[in-house]
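[User]
Protein folding is very new to me. Any chance you could explain this protein sequence and its structure tokens? I have pasted everything here:
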Amino acid sequence: MNSHNQKNSHLHQLPGEVELYINDDFTISVERVNQFVLAEFEHEVIQKQLYYHTKDHLIAVQQRAQLIFQAIRPYLSVDIKTIKRMELLLDVCAISHDLLQIFIPHEPHTSRRRQAGVSENASVVKLFDYIQVLNQQISASNPDSTALFTDLDLAIIQEAIIATICDYDTTEQAIYQPSLYDQNPSISLVARIITLADIGSLGMEGIGSYNREGGLLFLEENPDIIPIIQNQSVGTLSRDNPELYENLRQRLLRRTKFQVNFAKSRLNRLLNELSPFPVAAIPILTQEVFKYLNLETIKEIEAATRTDAETPLEVLISFFGFERLLK
């Protein structure tokens, strides 16, 4: 670290953190990192007006990741020390994978978007800046401390966060994570678990959670609808501003259609994405962990989701329960 970074290393510290951090327990190091990320993320949520990418999402991904890991853990041919390390790295990756959200400038009354990979790479840089400071504080006391993040740890964390980058399949009209299909070499178990957990709400938690996430994501990407809902002016919008009424209606229709297409895509892709896990764990993953991802669920989503081209804006808003989500 250069002299400029040394002078400003205190900027990476949590309130009350001493300059020299003495620790020989990697669990405590992980806790420190997670505390830092969550504190920074609170500012990001407020500054960027985030509704989907919140602490709730990070905790949900963390919990899903641990459920997936517990399903495959009995079938891993590694020692208990490696198992524990993987669990801790999963927590770091889950908590930090959405640390920064960087939106592309957009025109009024259009959805705001993120350029693929920009937020993820920026999240890695910010996270690693803090870990570098933490490692230096630990090694100042004990260069051989087991609490240090190793180069392998950092490689796994970076791979896992970058692996959550999504692309769009024009045939399925849904997003997917290309990293899950890399074979030369295949991504690590930690990275695979994080990617599956990140988009695992439907399969692991069911339709209610899935639609709630869809609604929150729409609010985050279309904040111009929020004052209209909060001011209860939806009922008069078609008369007061018919152009905006239709604009919002079309955006919401695209979202409902995406909900159906993405659900179908998740079912179509799941077995392939699970295949690198131990064979004995696959039935547990499909029947117990991703237990909602089946044809019955897809049929229920198709039947309940309002995708008809003539669906009024009021009905679409009601479908996602925006008033409830904004309370």
Remarks:
- The radius of gyration is 22 Å.
- The chain has one domain: 26-324.
- The beta strands are 167-169, 174-176.
